[in-house]
Amino acid sequence: MVPTLMGIILIILGLLHAAPGDPAMQMMGLGGGTGEVSQEGVDIEAKIAKFKRDNALDRNFLVQYLGHLGPFNVKPDGHELFGGDGRNPWGGFLSFSFGSELFNRNKMIGAEIWKRLKSTTLPLAIISIFLTYLLALPIGIYSANRQGTTIDKVTTLGLFILYSIPVFWAALMLKLIFGKTGLSLLPVMNLHSQDSDQLGTMAYFLDTAKHMILPVAVMTYGGLAYLSRQMRTGMIEVIHQDYIRTAKAKGLGSKAIVFKHALRNSVIPVITIFASILPIMIGGSLIIEVVFDLPGTGEYMFKGLMERDYNIIMATMTLSGTMTLVGILLSDIAYALVDPRITYS
Amino acid sequence: MTESTTAPTSTAPLIEVEGLRKYFPIRKGVFSRHVGNVKAVDGLSFTVGRQETLSLVGESGCGKTTAGRTLLRLLEPTAGRASYRAEPDTEAIELFDLSRRQMREYRTDLQIIFQDPYSSLNPRKTAGGIVGEALRVHGLATGQELEDRVAELLVRVGLRADAFNRFPHEFSGGQRQRIGIARALALEPRFIVCDEAVSALDVSIQAQVINLLKDLQEERGLSFLFIAHDLSVVKYLSDRIAVMYLGRIVELATAAELFSNPRHPYTKALLSAVPRPDPKLRQERIPLTGDVPSPMNPPPGCHFAPRCPVAEKRCHEAYPETVKVTATHEAACHLVE
Fold first, then answer.
1. Of B112, B123, B125, which has the smallest distance from its Cβ to A249's Cβ?
2. Residues spanned by the domain of B46
3. Where does the pLDDT of residue A208 fall: very low under 50, low under 70, confident under 90, or very high at 90 and above?
4. What is the rounded CA–CA span in Å between residue A313 and residue B326?
């Protein structure tokens, strides 16, 4: 897992360096410029040089990579090995430190991510994943067992349409319809009302729930459509297997056949999908969080991207990468639990 | 009470099938238009007596497997009737008139051993679970008693009792087929459809399994509908044999009669293809040319006529009536007189 992670960090950093713009330019308000710095003279040049030196942005690519990967801190206050003064020798991902934001040195990225995860991203993701599975599995099983009937065809068409709607469009449409511009039924920004501090527990809970409805709906529908299609396909494949006929010959009822014989054999692809859902859960859904102005990790990544804050980008992207790996590991373990033929020795 | 056709008599067979038909609809296009039928089984009539083995033989695709499955309502029949009479003096049960729920109860009496021992066992259930599940579902045994009965069955079919907790992939093909047999036996059925039960096995294992089936038949008074394409296996095991061609029975006789005096040209061709372990014997082979015609669009007249070496004009015009050769031998051929 660690070598894969090292590769992931390398690729992300490579992409960042290949992309136009850099943090120093950004700081000077020059945006993603092409290097036209000269008109303001030496003062700015010196400031930029200092900024670069302080954040180890003047080091070569390999040293910067090591700085992000860890365990050494390669900044001026870092490890002696990299010419630092040794006040703060360790840093980087391998020493579990994401450092501070480039433009706000008092703000630690790790703490900020954790705060955002706890308050926004995790609750939304957990509810959404729970809902996705809760709805998708029964829909998939139901339409698989009525394969070819009108109800199956209608469900299939409906899910296909859902699956095809882009998230940003759906999010904006829902805002238009349910927000002040339309029916004025639901709040469309943030997770809490501005005066939510003054509310009682119950009212606070209701307020939050109301704010969550639209983001959760947008987060859920795509996965729901995809997952229930997977479930249906898997189920159809399994109910045509010979051992299902065996179960029927034993005199089992159709419920027992579906739930005791077919389900366990058809959930494997659905488990695999969990591996790809987990990183979204932790990384946050960038588009949804930005559209609904939710202070989650996705929005944090967006902020990092807009400001060219390499530290934030590296931290959030590395986290997504790690979660992908964790997701794969978890689904491998779940595989072994479901399928007796797989053993990991 | 007056005598009716279904009234019990002393010779009442265990299973009686009449005019069994199974068509698979062919649908085409966006609106799934019904454009025709595959007549997989097209009017089968036969009986299976108590403790009797009736074999159903024929080429692949002739409908023998479909016939077996439809009889047990693993496929829903298109037409025909099938009755089951548990004892000679009990009333006959019309299997095709039962609701699905009612049919489930009779599955304890009517069982099937499947063709493919690899795909017919759920890969995520243990051998014990596979064999014992039916007992549990039908409420025949629970807990320790269930485990004991399953272990006993596993031993009876020649597996070790510790097979109980192992999964299908840990067994060889022959062992898996034994699990399939143990599974079918678990409910103590009266009648078992053996659908190519030994075809997937090595010859040495085939012999063991066939002997096992014979022993079990004697022990438990079972009746078999033995579906196969290997005539040497069938000869050894059967009391009577029905030869199928394209969804219909073309000849039905006792095993001895069929082998000594085959009347239908198709049966003759099949028998001539059986290898005999005697180098001196010069036998005449009757090679069949061409393929089995499509069951979607069978030829007019006798289905076998296009491939028949002795076909006459009338064979191409009308399907022959079934003619009784002796009391226990019938054939559907114009040339049988």
1. B112
2. 15-109+189-332
3. confident
4. 91
Please give the span between the terminal C-alpha atoms of chain A, in angstroms, as a whole number: 17
Percent of chain A with pLDDT over 70: 91
CA angle, B198 then B204 then B205, to 5° = 45
Domain CATH number, residue B217: 3.40.50.300
- Residue-by-residue DSSP string for B139-197: TS--HHHHHHHHHHHHHHTT--GGGGG--GGGS-HHHHHHHHHHHHHTT--SEEEEEST
Cβ-based contacts of B111 with chain A (< 8 Å): 249
Q: What residue of B is the nearest CA neighbor of A241? A: B119
Q: Which of A247, A289, A286 is nearest to B114 (CA)?
A: A247
Nearest-CA neighbor of B22 among B79, B91, B64, B106? B79
Q: How many domains does chain B have?
A: 1
What gap in Å lies between CA A79 and CA A97, rounded to an integer?
15
Cβ–Cβ below 8 Å for A250 and B167: no
How much is the mean pLDDT over chain B? Answer: 86
Question: What's the whole-model pTM score?
Answer: 0.73
Whether A36 shows a pLDDT value over 60: the answer reads no
How many CB atoms are closer than 10 A to CB B42?
22
The Cα A191–Cα A187 span in angstroms is 9
In a domain, B135, yes or no: no
* Chain B closest-CA separation from residue A243 CA (Å): 4
Of B253, B259, B211, the residue nearest B232 (C-alpha): B259
Domains parsed from chain A with CATH numbers: 2-97 (no CATH), 110-338 (1.10.3720.10)
Q: CA of B116: which chain A residue's CA is closest?
A: A242
Does residue B21 belong to any structural domain of this protein?
A: yes
| Contact list, A242 vs chain B (CB under 8 Å) | 114, 116, 119-120
Q: Say yes or no to pLDDT of B209 above 70.
A: yes
Reported as a single tens digit per residue, the pLDDT across A222-259 is 888 888 888 888 888 888 888 888 888 888 888 888 88
Say what the pLDDT of residue A39 is.
Answer: 54
Report the amino acid identity of residue B42. Answer: D
Å between B120 CA and nearest CA of chain A = 4
* B71 token code pair: 């009889």
What is the ipTM, given to two decimal places?
Answer: 0.77
Model confidence at B283, pLDDT cuts 50, 70, 90, reads: low
Residue A317 is which amino acid? M
**Closest-CA residue in chain B for A339?**
B124
Please judge whether A243 and B120 are an interchain contact, meaning their C-beta atoms are less than 8 angstroms apart.
yes
pLDDT in tens, B133-160: 989 888 888 889 999 999 998 988 888 8
List the single residue in B with minimal CA-CA distance to A266.
Answer: B124
pLDDT, residue B79, reads 92
The amino acid sitting at B81 is: R
Give percent of chain A with pLDDT exceeding 90: 1
